[in-house]
Design a protein that fits this description.
494 residues, two-stranded antiparallel ribbon, globular
């Protein structure tokens, strides 16, 4: 492959991830303006936020057939066109247009995410595959960081939400130009590899291979499907989307009291994700997929269990967010999006410390009354120290995810399935990814309301421990191997 083609492929992957991350993160700032501009009820806000996930879920159901039959390159081109159309629809001054636009964008970015990872994995040599596929995850983190930053600068501009949605057109056009100039036969070499192997040509490369083969024992497909489902389900059930969501509360608890400071703290969190993901790019082809994924899950388990232990007697753990104004917009509950800025949790300065400090007797469940003036916690206060430890643990969870689940999930999904069914298999597992994302996000507040913060994070920590065992026993190492070698190894492992 020529250097120019390789460079274009790298840009296509990175920009695709950037658009994905931008669309995930931008709603956090836009929603605050849309709520006022359209006088949205909480149900309407929930519908608007979740419409992106609905579109992505629909795409994961039908996208596999599109990718396998029309090709990866054409699928990316289609996703670019749909994002441009969706972005234009989002500029219409109508609530229903916003919902439809978000569904279109969600559908398009899901098609793009699946196509980009498969496209790049099939184009590049084994020693570069991990680096280039990981570029997609890097693009996602950069997109989230960009969205946070744009939220910050446009938060006080009248009609700024239109600019927030509209700016997605810029990277989309860049990806469209790059994929247009890629050779139309760029995705063909991998399809032709292994043609002389009778086992491969008889099964893996047969275009008419039925989707049901994913659940058969032949070629160890059942185990491959289990690995794929384990990757996407564990990455959601370890609570990563909600850890990001909960960041604003933790930032307030250690002194980030204003809207601006909380948003800037979120920008800092996004910056950490970018740095760690860039580091994982370097090590994915050197250290390997297994060590990074198992190591990341181990760090997440330790950090999440630590948060559960330290948060056991906190005010946040004792209070029930479904009954508290601190966790809602307009007095109701709407934190249903994994990436939000700090303005959702704004509290008066003299009450910001109550989130993760011990309750005091009396009053409304220990909650300071308006006339109370609680003493400022000193640096040596055990409660304050616990808050900072919790904050460090949260940063560790985000960092571990960024070098483990974040890049490795999509890299491994693009490697473990045979070429002829790779698009449909990727879409099938991605469907479970979005469905579990919806379940985990929408049940977060009710779970906290039932078992508290401590119990919730303990469940996430136990899920991380289960993931360590699952990947230790089932996941093969794919570092430095061609897709054909990976396929042969997985067929031979029973």
């Amino acid at each position: 492959m020529g250097c120019s083609t390789l460079l274009l492929a790298a840009v296509v992957s990175t920009v695709g991830g950037l658009v994905f991350g931008y669309e995930l993160g931008i709603i956090s700032g836009a929603l605050l303006q849309l709520k006022a501009a359209f006088s949205l009820s909480c149900v309407q806000q929930e519908a608007l936020v979740s419409s992106l996930l609905v579109g992505a879920l629909l795409a994961s159901i039908v996208g596999g057939y599109l990718i396998d039959r029309q090709g990866r390159r054409k699928s990316i081109l289609l996703s670019n066109v749909l994002i441009l159309i969706g972005s234009l629809v989002l500029l219409v001054n109508s609530y229903y247009a916003l919902v439809v636009g978000r569904i279109i964008v969600g559908f398009a970015m899901c098609i793009s995410s699946m196509s980009c990872c498969i496209f790049v994995s099939e184009m590049v040599a084994p020693d570069r595959r991990g680096f280039l596929v990981t570029l997609y995850e890097t693009g996602i983190t950069v997109g989230i960081l960009t969205a946070y930053t744009i939220n910050y600068f446009l938060s006080d501009i009248n009609g700024g939400w239109k600019w927030m949605f509209g700016l997605a057109v810029v990277p989309t056009l860049l990806q469209l130009v790059c994929i247009w100039f890629l050779p139309s036969g760029a995705e063909e070499p991998d399809r032709n590899q292994g043609a002389n192997d009778p086992n491969v040509s008889a099964g893996v490369e047969n275009k008419s291979v039925p989707f049901s083969v994913m659940f058969q024992s032949r070629d160890n497909m059942r185990t491959r499907t289990a690995i794929g489902l384990g990757l996407v389900l564990f990455q959601q059930f370890t609570g990563q989307p909600n850890v990001l969501f909960y960041a604003s509360t933790l930032f307030h608890s250690v002194g980030f009291q204003s809207d601006a400071s909380a948003v800037m703290a979120s920008v800092g969190l996004g910056l950490v994700k970018v740095i760690v993901t860039l580091t994982s790019m370097v090590f994915s082809d050197r250290v390997g997929r297994r060590p990074l994924l198992i190591g990341g899950c181990s760090v997440m388990a330790l950090s999440l269990i630590t948060i559960a232990v330290l948060g056991g007697h906190s005010a946040t753990n004792a209070k029930r967010p479904c009954d508290s104004e601190d966790f809602g917009i307009n007095g109701t509950d709407l934190p249903h999006w994994p990436v939000v800025n700090g303005s959702l949790f704004d509290t008066p300065q003299n009450q910001s410390h109550v989130f993760l400090t011990n309750n005091t007797p009396g009053g409304d469940g220990g909650r300071p009354q308006p006339s109370d003036t609680p003493p400022a916690p000193s640096s040596g206060d055990p409660g304050t120290m616990a808050n900072w430890v919790i904050l460090v643990c949260m940063m560790a969870v985000v960092s571990a995810y960024s070098f483990g689940f974040g890049p490795m999930t999509w890299l491994l999904l693009s490697e473990i399935f045979p070429t002829a069914i790779r698009g449909r298999a990727f879409a099938f597992t991605n469907c479970f990814n979005w469905a579990s994302h919806l379940v985990v996000t929408f049940t977060f507040l009710n779970l906290i309301n039932s078992i508290g913060v401590s119990g919730t994070f303990l469940l996430y920590g136990l899920a991380s421990l289960a993931a360590v065992g699952f990947f230790y026993f089932l996941l093969p190492e794919t570092k430095g191997k061609t897709l054909e070698e990976i396929d042969k190894e997985l067929r031979s492992n029973r």
